[in-house]
């Protein structure tokens, strides 16, 4: 009996770990931070304060966005099993931890739950989730499969992460707080920053995947321009992001604490360049580590910016 119980526990633990990998944790963390960050910004700008009634709107948005996230990254894995066996052999479908049918069931379930929860929570959230799922489907699924084309692939990623998520979440929370559905300057600043930042993520993510993408005729900027050129381009795009938002601080935009904005982003910019000097583009693991570092900078923005709004 104890042996059976132990086997069941191991199976559950292994399944949950495989599901965690399937969900692509770095995207799950980014999605979670974006939800809570936009909520804090909405509260700061509306000056309404926190209340228990708001919790349903926040949790609904969080659950819907997380499920939508798993749908999008899961669908991509379903269509990229052979490529992932070369580029990302640790992923559950590529490694055989999940069967193709299990992957399909997870993806369909997550997509349905995302839409239902969004529909029950609010119209702006439903618009956000539906449009994100549609773009994610067009990105991965034949015959459209926009990920084959560098421009359209990048556009899919930064339009969802940069524009739809930020504007949609703010409008949702503003609506939940009973305010007029308008976008204030501070939210436009964050949206443009994340939009450009996500472009850097979109082009950088293909550097460690060069081998598999080339073998399966997935055209990327890395294949067209070379790893060094894309690495440098991503660094300078991120630099423009940080310099731009520091300029916003100097110009003293309404709803944002200028001193906090300038100092924090200057420190992060300096840290990014120092970290980039140690990256060996011949070492795939070093490139992957720096890619994860860029995602950490992405997370950090969703912490720093709402603090700047709350301190305004």
From TrEMBL:
Residue ranges of the TM segments: 28-49, 55-75, 105-129, 149-173, 185-204, 233-253, 260-278
Instruction: Spell out the InterPro entries in the cross-references.
Output: AtHST-like, UbiA_prenyltransferase, UbiA_sf
UniProt subcellular location: Membrane
Topological relation to the membrane, as annotated: Multi-pass membrane protein
Instruction: List the EC numbers from the record.
Output: 2.5.1.115
Alphabetical keyword list = Membrane, Transferase, Transmembrane, Transmembrane helix
Molecular function (GO) terms for this protein are:
homogentisate phytyltransferase activity
Pfam families documented for this protein: UbiA
CDD domains given in the database record: PT_UbiA_HPT1 (cd13960)
Is-annotated flag, keyword Secreted? no
- The answer to keyword Transferase applying to this record is yes
Protein family membership: Belongs to the UbiA prenyltransferase family.
NCBIfam families reported in the protein's UniProt record? PRK12887.1
Q: Which PANTHER family match?
A: HOMOGENTISATE GERANYLGERANYLTRANSFERASE, CHLOROPLASTIC, HOMOGENTISATE SOLANESYLTRANSFERASE, CHLOROPLASTIC
Protein name listed in UniProt: Homogentisate phytyltransferase
Which species is this record about? Nodularia spumigena UHCC 0060
């Amino acid at each position: 009996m104890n042996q059976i119980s132990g086997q069941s526990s191991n199976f559950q633990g292994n399944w949950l770990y495989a599901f965690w990998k399937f969900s692509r944790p770095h995207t799950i963390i980014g999605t979670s931070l974006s939800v809570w960050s936009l909520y804090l910004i909405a509260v700061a700008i509306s000056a309404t304060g926190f209340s228990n009634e708001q919790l349903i709107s926040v949790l609904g948005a969080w659950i819907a966005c997380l499920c939508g996230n798993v749908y999008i990254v899961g669908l991509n894995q379903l269509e990229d099993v052979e490529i992932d066996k070369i580029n990302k052999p640790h992923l559950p479908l590529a490694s055989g931890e999940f069967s193709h049918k299990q992957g399909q069931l997870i993806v369909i379930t997550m997509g349905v739950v995302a839409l239902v929860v969004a529909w029950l929570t609010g119209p702006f959230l439903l618009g956000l989730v539906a449009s994100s799922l549609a773009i994610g489907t067009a990105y991965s699924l034949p015959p459209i499969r926009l990920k084959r084309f560098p421009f359209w692939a990048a556009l899919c990623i930064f339009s969802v992460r940069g524009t739809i998520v930020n504007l949609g979440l703010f409008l949702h929370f503003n609506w939940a707080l009973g305010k007029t559905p308008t976008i204030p300057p501070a939210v436009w600043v964050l949206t443009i920053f994340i939009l450009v930042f996500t472009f850097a993520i979109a082009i950088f993510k293909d550097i460690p995947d060069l081998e598999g993408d080339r073998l399966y005729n997935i055209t990327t900027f890395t294949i067209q321009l070379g790893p060094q050129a894309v690495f440098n381009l991503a660094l300078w795009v991120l630099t423009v992001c940080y310099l731009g938002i520091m300029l916003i601080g100097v110009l003293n935009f309404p709803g944002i604490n200028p001193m906090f904005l300038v100092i924090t982003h200057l420190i992060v910019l300096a840290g990014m360049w120092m970290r980039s000097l140690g990256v060996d583009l011949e070492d795939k693991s070093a490139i992957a580590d720096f890619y994860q570092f860029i995602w950490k900078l992405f997370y950090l923005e969703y912490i720093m910016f709402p603090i700047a709004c709350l301190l305004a």
